[in-house]
Amino acid sequence: MSTTPELHSDIDLRELVISLLAGDEDVATVNARAADMGYRTEIRAATEELAHAAFVRGDRAALHTAHWVLGDIYNWCFSLPSIDQVDSLLGEILDDIRSVLENAMMADLRARIDQRELASAPQDPEEFLPWYRNFISNHKASNHPFYRDFLENRASIEDIRFYLAQETSLDPRFDDILSLLTVGTDGSEKMELVTNLWDELGNGNTNDVHTSVFAKTLADAGVSKEFIDTNIMLESVICGNVSAALALSRRHCYKAFGYFGVTEYLTPRRFRSYMVGCKRLGMPKSAYVYHDQHIQIDARHGPSWFKNILLPAISREPRCAVDIALGTVMRLETSTWYLDALQAKLEPAG
Q: Are residues 188 and 81 in the same domain?
Protein backbone atom coordinates (compact mmCIF):
# COMPACT_ATOMS: atom_id res chain seq x y z
CA MET A 1 0.00 0.00 0.00
CA SER A 2 1.35 3.43 -0.93
CA THR A 3 2.49 5.61 1.96
CA THR A 4 3.03 8.70 -0.17
CA PRO A 5 0.53 11.44 -0.98
CA GLU A 6 -1.79 10.82 -3.92
CA LEU A 7 -0.95 12.59 -7.16
CA HIS A 8 -3.45 13.76 -9.73
CA SER A 9 -3.26 14.14 -13.50
CA ASP A 10 -3.49 17.91 -13.11
CA ILE A 11 -0.34 18.01 -11.00
CA ASP A 12 1.83 21.09 -11.48
CA LEU A 13 4.99 19.31 -12.58
CA ARG A 14 7.23 22.34 -12.32
CA GLU A 15 6.11 23.06 -8.78
CA LEU A 16 6.79 19.43 -7.92
CA VAL A 17 10.31 19.58 -9.38
CA ILE A 18 11.05 22.91 -7.67
CA SER A 19 9.93 21.39 -4.36
CA LEU A 20 12.04 18.26 -4.87
CA LEU A 21 15.13 20.28 -5.82
CA ALA A 22 14.65 22.66 -2.89
CA GLY A 23 15.09 19.75 -0.48
CA ASP A 24 11.78 20.40 1.23
CA GLU A 25 11.63 16.74 2.32
CA ASP A 26 14.23 14.72 4.20
CA VAL A 27 16.21 11.93 2.55
CA ALA A 28 14.12 9.16 4.11
CA THR A 29 10.92 10.61 2.64
CA VAL A 30 12.46 11.13 -0.79
CA ASN A 31 13.86 7.59 -0.78
CA ALA A 32 10.47 6.19 0.20
CA ARG A 33 8.94 8.01 -2.76
CA ALA A 34 11.65 6.68 -5.07
CA ALA A 35 10.84 3.13 -3.91
CA ASP A 36 7.09 3.61 -4.45
CA MET A 37 6.46 2.47 -8.02
CA GLY A 38 2.87 3.67 -7.88
CA TYR A 39 4.01 7.19 -7.06
CA ARG A 40 6.61 7.16 -9.80
CA THR A 41 4.17 5.75 -12.35
CA GLU A 42 1.79 8.61 -11.66
CA ILE A 43 4.56 11.18 -11.99
CA ARG A 44 5.55 9.60 -15.28
CA ALA A 45 1.95 9.72 -16.50
CA ALA A 46 1.72 13.42 -15.63
CA THR A 47 5.01 14.01 -17.43
CA GLU A 48 3.79 12.17 -20.51
CA GLU A 49 0.68 14.37 -20.56
CA LEU A 50 2.87 17.47 -20.43
CA ALA A 51 5.18 16.12 -23.15
CA HIS A 52 2.23 15.36 -25.44
CA ALA A 53 0.78 18.82 -24.95
CA ALA A 54 4.13 20.53 -25.50
CA PHE A 55 5.68 18.53 -28.34
CA VAL A 56 2.71 16.95 -30.13
CA ARG A 57 -0.20 19.36 -29.68
CA GLY A 58 2.08 22.40 -29.85
CA ASP A 59 0.69 24.07 -26.73
CA ARG A 60 3.02 27.03 -26.19
CA ALA A 61 2.36 27.27 -22.44
CA ALA A 62 3.06 23.54 -22.05
CA LEU A 63 6.25 23.95 -24.11
CA HIS A 64 7.44 26.63 -21.71
CA THR A 65 6.69 24.41 -18.71
CA ALA A 66 8.37 21.36 -20.26
CA HIS A 67 11.57 23.24 -21.03
CA TRP A 68 11.67 25.02 -17.68
CA VAL A 69 11.27 21.67 -15.91
CA LEU A 70 14.04 20.16 -18.05
CA GLY A 71 16.21 23.21 -17.42
CA ASP A 72 15.75 22.90 -13.66
CA ILE A 73 16.70 19.22 -13.79
CA TYR A 74 19.74 19.85 -15.98
CA ASN A 75 20.92 22.55 -13.58
CA TRP A 76 20.73 19.90 -10.86
CA CYS A 77 22.65 17.43 -13.04
CA PHE A 78 25.48 19.94 -13.46
CA SER A 79 25.68 20.78 -9.74
CA LEU A 80 27.26 19.14 -6.72
CA PRO A 81 24.76 17.68 -4.23
CA SER A 82 24.41 19.25 -0.82
CA ILE A 83 25.87 17.15 1.99
CA ASP A 84 22.32 16.56 3.25
CA GLN A 85 21.40 14.87 -0.05
CA VAL A 86 24.38 12.58 -0.66
CA ASP A 87 22.38 9.43 0.11
CA SER A 88 19.20 10.63 -1.58
CA LEU A 89 17.57 8.69 -4.42
CA LEU A 90 16.13 11.92 -5.79
CA GLY A 91 17.94 11.31 -9.08
CA GLU A 92 15.77 8.27 -9.76
CA ILE A 93 12.60 10.36 -9.56
CA LEU A 94 14.10 13.17 -11.63
CA ASP A 95 15.33 10.68 -14.24
CA ASP A 96 11.74 9.48 -14.75
CA ILE A 97 10.70 13.04 -15.59
CA ARG A 98 13.82 13.88 -17.54
CA SER A 99 13.71 10.79 -19.78
CA VAL A 100 10.12 11.45 -20.89
CA LEU A 101 10.64 15.15 -21.63
CA GLU A 102 14.10 14.68 -23.12
CA ASN A 103 12.96 11.93 -25.49
CA ALA A 104 9.97 14.02 -26.58
CA MET A 105 12.20 17.07 -27.12
CA MET A 106 14.69 15.13 -29.22
CA ALA A 107 11.97 13.41 -31.25
CA ASP A 108 10.32 16.76 -31.96
CA LEU A 109 13.63 18.30 -32.96
CA ARG A 110 14.43 15.43 -35.28
CA ALA A 111 10.97 15.60 -36.86
CA ARG A 112 11.50 19.28 -37.69
CA ILE A 113 14.72 18.58 -39.58
CA ASP A 114 14.76 17.93 -43.32
CA GLN A 115 15.97 14.34 -43.50
CA ARG A 116 17.26 14.91 -47.02
CA GLU A 117 20.01 17.03 -45.52
CA LEU A 118 21.20 14.03 -43.49
CA ALA A 119 21.03 11.65 -46.42
CA SER A 120 23.71 13.64 -48.24
CA ALA A 121 26.28 13.15 -45.46
CA PRO A 122 29.13 10.92 -46.76
CA GLN A 123 30.44 8.08 -44.60
CA ASP A 124 33.96 8.32 -45.99
CA PRO A 125 35.96 10.45 -43.52
CA GLU A 126 37.93 12.28 -46.19
CA GLU A 127 34.71 13.24 -47.96
CA PHE A 128 32.81 14.01 -44.76
CA LEU A 129 34.96 16.92 -43.56
CA PRO A 130 34.54 19.06 -46.73
CA TRP A 131 30.81 18.28 -46.64
CA TYR A 132 30.68 19.27 -42.96
CA ARG A 133 32.46 22.60 -43.49
CA ASN A 134 30.38 23.46 -46.54
CA PHE A 135 27.15 22.50 -44.82
CA ILE A 136 27.89 24.78 -41.88
CA SER A 137 29.09 27.66 -44.07
CA ASN A 138 25.98 27.55 -46.28
CA HIS A 139 23.54 27.55 -43.36
CA LYS A 140 21.83 30.75 -42.19
CA ALA A 141 23.28 30.27 -38.71
CA SER A 142 26.80 30.65 -40.08
CA ASN A 143 26.41 34.34 -40.92
CA HIS A 144 23.23 35.26 -39.11
CA PRO A 145 22.23 38.94 -39.45
CA PHE A 146 21.84 39.22 -35.67
CA TYR A 147 25.63 39.08 -35.41
CA ARG A 148 26.85 40.41 -38.73
CA ASP A 149 24.44 43.34 -38.88
CA PHE A 150 22.49 44.05 -35.71
CA LEU A 151 25.18 43.54 -33.05
CA GLU A 152 27.88 45.20 -35.13
CA ASN A 153 25.88 48.23 -36.24
CA ARG A 154 22.79 48.97 -34.17
CA ALA A 155 22.65 47.14 -30.84
CA SER A 156 22.47 49.33 -27.73
CA ILE A 157 24.15 48.65 -24.39
CA GLU A 158 20.82 47.34 -23.09
CA ASP A 159 20.65 45.01 -26.09
CA ILE A 160 24.12 43.75 -25.19
CA ARG A 161 22.98 43.03 -21.63
CA PHE A 162 19.94 41.15 -22.88
CA TYR A 163 22.10 39.13 -25.29
CA LEU A 164 24.57 38.20 -22.54
CA ALA A 165 21.69 36.93 -20.40
CA GLN A 166 20.67 34.56 -23.20
CA GLU A 167 24.20 33.20 -23.57
CA THR A 168 24.12 31.85 -20.01
CA SER A 169 22.23 28.76 -21.21
CA LEU A 170 25.50 27.19 -22.46
CA ASP A 171 28.69 29.15 -21.68
CA PRO A 172 28.80 28.64 -17.87
CA ARG A 173 28.81 24.84 -18.21
CA PHE A 174 30.87 24.30 -21.35
CA ASP A 175 33.90 23.04 -19.40
CA ASP A 176 31.73 20.38 -17.76
CA ILE A 177 30.29 19.43 -21.15
CA LEU A 178 33.80 18.89 -22.50
CA SER A 179 34.57 16.72 -19.48
CA LEU A 180 31.52 14.57 -20.18
CA LEU A 181 32.38 14.20 -23.86
CA THR A 182 35.85 12.97 -22.93
CA VAL A 183 34.50 9.82 -21.24
CA GLY A 184 35.23 6.72 -23.31
CA THR A 185 37.42 8.44 -25.91
CA ASP A 186 41.08 7.77 -26.52
CA GLY A 187 43.89 8.81 -28.83
CA SER A 188 43.51 12.07 -30.73
CA GLU A 189 39.85 12.43 -29.68
CA LYS A 190 40.68 12.42 -25.99
CA MET A 191 43.72 14.64 -26.48
CA GLU A 192 41.70 17.23 -28.44
CA LEU A 193 38.92 17.30 -25.86
CA VAL A 194 41.38 17.54 -22.97
CA THR A 195 43.37 20.28 -24.71
CA ASN A 196 40.14 22.16 -25.30
CA LEU A 197 39.15 21.66 -21.67
CA TRP A 198 42.55 22.86 -20.46
CA ASP A 199 42.09 26.07 -22.45
CA GLU A 200 38.63 26.47 -20.87
CA LEU A 201 40.35 26.12 -17.49
CA GLY A 202 42.72 28.96 -18.28
CA ASN A 203 45.67 26.60 -18.78
CA GLY A 204 45.85 26.24 -15.02
CA ASN A 205 45.58 29.97 -14.23
CA THR A 206 42.61 30.46 -11.90
CA ASN A 207 42.06 34.04 -13.06
CA ASP A 208 41.75 32.92 -16.68
CA VAL A 209 39.22 30.10 -16.18
CA HIS A 210 36.62 30.87 -18.81
CA THR A 211 33.59 30.36 -16.58
CA SER A 212 35.06 32.86 -14.10
CA VAL A 213 35.90 35.37 -16.85
CA PHE A 214 32.36 35.01 -18.23
CA ALA A 215 30.90 35.50 -14.74
CA LYS A 216 32.92 38.71 -14.37
CA THR A 217 31.70 39.87 -17.79
CA LEU A 218 28.12 39.37 -16.63
CA ALA A 219 28.73 41.16 -13.34
CA ASP A 220 30.43 44.14 -14.99
CA ALA A 221 27.54 44.41 -17.47
CA GLY A 222 24.96 44.32 -14.66
CA VAL A 223 23.58 40.94 -15.70
CA SER A 224 22.48 39.49 -12.37
CA LYS A 225 20.75 36.17 -11.75
CA GLU A 226 17.52 38.08 -11.26
CA PHE A 227 18.00 39.82 -14.61
CA ILE A 228 18.64 36.47 -16.31
CA ASP A 229 15.62 34.79 -14.69
CA THR A 230 13.40 37.68 -15.73
CA ASN A 231 14.65 38.00 -19.31
CA ILE A 232 15.73 34.54 -20.47
CA MET A 233 13.88 33.55 -23.65
CA LEU A 234 12.34 30.15 -24.32
CA GLU A 235 14.59 29.70 -27.35
CA SER A 236 17.66 30.23 -25.14
CA VAL A 237 16.45 27.61 -22.70
CA ILE A 238 15.84 25.21 -25.60
CA CYS A 239 19.43 25.64 -26.81
CA GLY A 240 20.73 24.98 -23.31
CA ASN A 241 18.51 21.95 -22.86
CA VAL A 242 19.50 20.35 -26.16
CA SER A 243 23.17 20.95 -25.32
CA ALA A 244 22.74 19.33 -21.90
CA ALA A 245 20.80 16.36 -23.30
CA LEU A 246 23.49 15.59 -25.85
CA ALA A 247 26.29 15.85 -23.29
CA LEU A 248 24.63 13.89 -20.49
CA SER A 249 23.26 10.94 -22.47
CA ARG A 250 25.92 8.57 -23.79
CA ARG A 251 23.62 7.41 -26.59
CA HIS A 252 23.88 10.90 -28.07
CA CYS A 253 27.70 11.13 -28.01
CA TYR A 254 28.13 11.18 -31.81
CA LYS A 255 25.42 13.78 -32.19
CA ALA A 256 27.29 15.77 -29.55
CA PHE A 257 30.52 15.56 -31.57
CA GLY A 258 28.77 17.16 -34.53
CA TYR A 259 26.75 19.62 -32.43
CA PHE A 260 29.64 21.06 -30.42
CA GLY A 261 31.92 21.02 -33.45
CA VAL A 262 29.60 23.64 -34.92
CA THR A 263 29.84 25.66 -31.71
CA GLU A 264 33.64 25.64 -31.86
CA TYR A 265 33.68 26.51 -35.55
CA LEU A 266 31.27 29.46 -35.39
CA THR A 267 32.36 31.01 -32.11
CA PRO A 268 35.25 33.16 -33.46
CA ARG A 269 33.19 34.93 -36.13
CA ARG A 270 30.23 35.42 -33.79
CA PHE A 271 32.31 36.80 -30.96
CA ARG A 272 34.18 39.06 -33.37
CA SER A 273 30.86 40.68 -34.30
CA TYR A 274 30.04 41.05 -30.61
CA MET A 275 33.35 42.82 -30.00
CA VAL A 276 32.75 45.17 -32.94
CA GLY A 277 29.45 46.16 -31.33
CA CYS A 278 31.02 46.65 -27.88
CA LYS A 279 33.82 48.84 -29.26
CA ARG A 280 31.31 50.88 -31.28
CA LEU A 281 29.45 51.57 -28.02
CA GLY A 282 32.65 52.49 -26.18
CA MET A 283 32.23 49.67 -23.66
CA PRO A 284 35.19 48.76 -21.40
CA LYS A 285 37.41 45.82 -22.29
CA SER A 286 35.90 43.81 -19.43
CA ALA A 287 32.74 43.59 -21.52
CA TYR A 288 34.48 41.51 -24.15
CA VAL A 289 37.70 40.02 -22.71
CA TYR A 290 35.94 36.63 -22.50
CA HIS A 291 34.97 36.85 -26.15
CA ASP A 292 38.43 38.01 -27.19
CA GLN A 293 39.95 34.94 -25.54
CA HIS A 294 37.61 32.63 -27.44
CA ILE A 295 38.28 34.26 -30.80
CA GLN A 296 41.95 33.40 -30.44
CA ILE A 297 41.51 29.96 -28.89
CA ASP A 298 38.57 28.65 -30.91
CA ALA A 299 40.21 29.68 -34.17
CA ARG A 300 42.45 26.69 -33.43
CA HIS A 301 39.88 24.42 -31.81
CA GLY A 302 37.37 24.48 -34.67
CA PRO A 303 39.65 22.93 -37.34
CA SER A 304 41.31 20.68 -34.74
CA TRP A 305 37.89 19.37 -33.65
CA PHE A 306 37.20 18.31 -37.23
CA LYS A 307 40.59 16.65 -37.70
CA ASN A 308 41.07 15.04 -34.29
CA ILE A 309 37.51 14.13 -33.26
CA LEU A 310 35.25 13.80 -36.29
CA LEU A 311 37.78 12.21 -38.64
CA PRO A 312 38.90 9.43 -36.23
CA ALA A 313 35.31 8.70 -35.17
CA ILE A 314 34.12 8.20 -38.74
CA SER A 315 37.27 6.29 -39.69
CA ARG A 316 36.58 3.89 -36.83
CA GLU A 317 32.84 3.63 -37.42
CA PRO A 318 31.59 5.10 -40.74
CA ARG A 319 27.94 4.71 -39.71
CA CYS A 320 28.36 7.34 -37.00
CA ALA A 321 28.59 9.98 -39.77
CA VAL A 322 24.78 10.12 -39.87
CA ASP A 323 24.57 10.83 -36.14
CA ILE A 324 27.33 13.44 -36.37
CA ALA A 325 25.45 15.08 -39.24
CA LEU A 326 22.22 15.00 -37.22
CA GLY A 327 23.91 16.74 -34.30
CA THR A 328 25.32 19.29 -36.73
CA VAL A 329 21.88 20.13 -38.09
CA MET A 330 20.41 20.23 -34.57
CA ARG A 331 22.93 22.88 -33.56
CA LEU A 332 22.48 24.96 -36.71
CA GLU A 333 18.68 24.84 -36.57
CA THR A 334 18.28 25.56 -32.85
CA SER A 335 20.84 28.36 -33.15
CA THR A 336 18.89 29.89 -36.03
CA TRP A 337 15.61 29.74 -34.09
CA TYR A 338 17.34 31.35 -31.12
CA LEU A 339 18.94 34.15 -33.14
CA ASP A 340 15.75 34.81 -35.13
CA ALA A 341 13.83 35.15 -31.85
CA LEU A 342 16.54 37.31 -30.31
CA GLN A 343 16.62 39.72 -33.22
CA ALA A 344 12.81 39.89 -33.35
CA LYS A 345 12.76 40.70 -29.64
CA LEU A 346 15.40 43.44 -29.82
CA GLU A 347 14.58 44.86 -33.24
CA PRO A 348 10.90 44.20 -33.97
CA ALA A 349 9.81 44.71 -37.56
CA GLY A 350 8.37 48.12 -38.38
A: no
